Amino acid sequence: MRVILIYPPCFYDRPGDEDHTIMPIGLYYIASYLLENGHKVSLINGHNISYSKEYFCQLIQEEKPDVIGFSVFNANRVNALKGVKWIKHINRQIITIFGGVAATFMAEDFLTYCKELDYVVCGEGEITLLELVNCLQSKDRNIEQIKGLAFRQKDEVIFTPSRGFISDLDSLPNPAKYFTYNHVLLSRGCPYNCSFCASPRFWQRRCRFHSPAYFVEQLKLLYSKGVNFFYVSDDTFTFKKEYVLEVCERICKEKLPINWFAISRVDALDEEIVKAMRRAGCIQISFGLESGSLKIRNIFNKHIKEEDAVKSFYLCKKYSILPRAYFIYGSPGENEQTIEETQNLIEKIKPINSIFYILHLFPGIKLYDEFRAKNLIKQESLHKNPEDILYFELDPNLTKTDILRFGNKLRSYFYSNLPRYVLDMELSSDKEFYPHHADFLSRLAMTFSHGDFAQNNYLKNQEEVAWELFVRSLKFSITERAFLGLGILAQKRGDYKNSISILQKGLTYFPKSKHLKMCLGVSYLNCGDKKNAKECFKPFVHIDPKAKDYLQECR
Known about the structure:
alpha/beta; six-stranded parallel sheet
């Protein structure tokens, strides 16, 4: 059968938060599973298209699909519902299917209120969807025999028995054989029980793993396709220490020149793991801390200790991995004191990046069920609200003004202190890590001079911080990025002679660097030295349009 799998866009744009725009890794696995079983499959990321009825008209006309499935999360459920309505209006013969976290927990709602939706795959999707597509193809509509499915029978929503999890993840086809992507998973599931997260209920607190060999083979295949940066999306990548160490050992043995981000918990990390991950190319680890208030962490079932948080953030910085903290505010019991306690935790751990979220409630999380049971949430709310329900809207003790003030206080506190956190870092004196330190500091400097921090209104003196970080980077090891950064900063200051000196020195180490030569040419131009500028731009006129424009200025 001809199958199209779509990841609809979120209802609201999220500037600066790219996680929501990435195709879920599960879709790649499902598509690969269908392909290896004889079906034709296309994948579409709704964030990369003009998501409209006109687009669907053209898509259906060109591809003539038999089945269109949607990966549905709370943030994109409105657009998923729009999509199935458009499809059925265009061609009622096309079978429409939902799958994913929101689909699993809202299956009855979706099937009741959206008559254009035919089926919902509940839970892990590979086997269920394949059996459904096979069944539809054979015209043997014995649908009720398929486990893990919801559908309408007359006007009643029917749920078949739930399907057990796939015990051997390595038995699944490697998606990297068929697709190119950079979000990867070593494991599925999480053993913890956070009350603001849907993972405990979706995965039933079970954690299953690919073998390190399968995982690293996937990285190798993707690297051969030009991917050299990865997001390792496991809920807790470091949960199984021996697997993490073997993965890192294999990456180093294969000499894969890759960088990657990971997610962990502060109580699932030690020095051996951090060192191994840095050697293998990890440059950032994100940790969910949620709140500095023990009372709020207990409400969240987030049972972590401050001393573990302090230790994990210290170890990451020591070995040149950027530690990023996640915080949630606007929670039950939130007040000025709990916000101050979160500020105190920030001061203790000194993160190098932090993300602050307002507490959202949605089906599948424990807090949502608790407030439904208290009749504080009406089921019809989900049909009135385009995305999730904000907790503070249910709490008479919290106002929108409070929430805005709390968010501003936390962000202002973190960013106003960030330059100090960055410049006070203690890096390991182990010379093995000197090249990693140089890479880390020059990357971080670029974030202050050109990246997210450069545009942040809470921060001051970004260019001074960047300059200091570039200088420190060169004390550990020579990097092209540090020379380039210093050369650009000197240009911004109008100090073109110093810029020329810095860039010329950089070119003694990296004589073929296009970036250093182009930057040097700009400094020469600003000094009126068109002859030397011309020599900098000439080698690149056929590969870089900017070089051609600059060369024209020289003439």
